[in-house]
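User: quick one, fold this
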Amino acid sequence: MLENQNITDEVQQTEENISSHELEAKEDIPTAEAGEAFSQSEEAAEDIPELSAPVIDRVRELACKVAETKELYPDLDIAQELRDPVFVKLMSAADGDVRRAYEMKYHDRIVTGAMQYAAERTEARLSEAMASRMSRPAENAAGGGSAVMMTSDPKNLTRAQRSEIKKRVRRGERILW
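Assistant:
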């Protein structure tokens, strides 16, 4: 944990050095954009000779993690997040994992967004299902038709007629008198 904190501190110091180095080269770039340019550029870290190889490797690793996290969460602004002490502490607690730190900091917002997306998607699927059912033709047995009504008295039926009615009842037909 202490080693990660030292590396995080060294990376932050490196970012400040690189940001100031980039600003000297391009004075018209705002500070936030310079920090973002640093986080996405591997070459920027190599331009400063006083950095050790492990720090350069760590900067590259963080730049890759930032890019992966930005694919999932496009509103991630790493330059702004690295200025936030809460985010830096979360990142340190997450062993330098940018995604985990971002998800911990914005957990409520992410969960709320996911629930809203799920509700909208469910509503859309339900609407599609209802629309498709309404356009489907009614099936034979699903019609609102009533059972067969017999107008004659069962006492007057012949043996063959009663046998025929029994067969129809066994098949599931309802017969009313």
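User: anything notable?
Assistant: The longest strand covers residues 148-149.
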